[in-house]
Design brief:
Pfam families: CLAMP
Helix content: 55-70%
Structural class: mainly alpha
Number of strands: 0
Number of helices: 10
């Protein structure tokens, strides 16, 4: 704490927070430490740094700002392992000890600051700063993949052409999905039909090896035919709907193809025939000029 002078805390305040914390660490004569592995020392350094910010914000002279840091460090050490009642008593005694270092206004501001921060969250301070913590630190090497090399501009597509191709692809995908749904429905209806027929036949317990009379046989056949007709009816309705949907998708594709955008013709330097076209254009201009003369 001997290096913590008025000029020292002034420099701490003038730096940005990372540089200010590092400068404060050197003024406190602390050795360098790992912020992640030694979280207790990191939090303690934050607490001392925040006390400087508080004091400067309240208009403390720079000499008194250095005393606030000393006051904070002593308070944290003396209250380690104490109850909150003992901590309040220690805070009151320390404020009386520092009466000669601060005027009444600054002393009251200092009292309010520690009541609203340290005392209000006393259990948290004790838990973090008063006992050893188990640190489980996992380090993962993350591989960052760079973006792929973009293709040459000559291989690019006009925006409208690209959008047109995307729309065609979406329609084709929707058509494939419709046909897939049809196949899935056929399989589901076939399983349902088998299940219903099996339930119908199972309603004749103990009669499998006995001869059925005419009425029972007719009833059994009628129910089986009814099941098949209902399944076939549902399948036909869905097939009709799917067929109309597919036809509508085909119509949309046809309309898109009829209204397909024409890609712009961009001349490329060095393309075969371009130099000859330019020479021919210059020759024609020369002939027109001579004709006018």
């Amino acid at each position: 704490m001997a290096l913590l002078t008025a000029q020292g805390v002034k420099k701490v305040f003038q730096f940005q927070k990372p540089e200010g914390r590092e400068h404060l660490r050197r003024l406190l004569n602390w050795e360098e430490f790992d912020e992640l592995r030694d979280s207790r020392r990191s939090i303690l350094l934050d607490t001392l740094y925040e006390s400087i910010i508080f004091a400067v914000g309240k208009g403390f002279p720079w000499r008194e700002v250095a005393q606030v840091v000393k006051f904070t460090e002593e308070l944290l050490k003396e209250t380690k392992g104490c109850s909150i009642t003992e901590a309040v008593t220690i805070l009151g005694n320390k404020l009386r000890d520092y009466q000669g270092q601060f005027n009444t206004t600054h002393l009251l501001a200092l009292c309010d600051y520690f009541h609203n921060t340290f005392i209000r969250h006393y259990k948290l301070y004790q838990y973090v700063l008063g006992q050893d913590q188990d640190v489980n630190l996992t380090v993962t090497n993350l591989e960052v993949c760079t973006p792929p090399q973009p293709l040459p501009l000559a291989e690019g597509k006009d925006r409208e052409v690209w959008k047109h191709e995307q729309q065609l692809e979406e329609l084709s995908t929707a058509e494939v999905q419709k046909r897939t749904n049809m196949l899935l429905l056929k399989g589901a209806l076939r399983l349902e039909q088998q299940h219903l027929l099996q339930e119908t036949f199972s309603q004749l317990p103990g009669r499998r090896h006995q001869t059925l009379n005419r009425e029972e046989l007719e009833k059994l056949i009628t129910e089986a035919i009814h099941i098949q007709i209902e399944c076939l009816k549902e399948l036909l309705q869905y097939e009709i709907q799917i067929t109309f949907d597919i036809l509508d998708l085909k119509l949309q594709k046809k309309t898109l193809n009829l209204n397909a955008p024409i890609p712009p013709l961009v001349p490329i330097a060095g393309q075969p025939g371009q130099d000859e076209a330019l020479k021919l254009s210059k020759t024609n201009k020369g002939k027109k000029a001579k004709a006018k003369k």
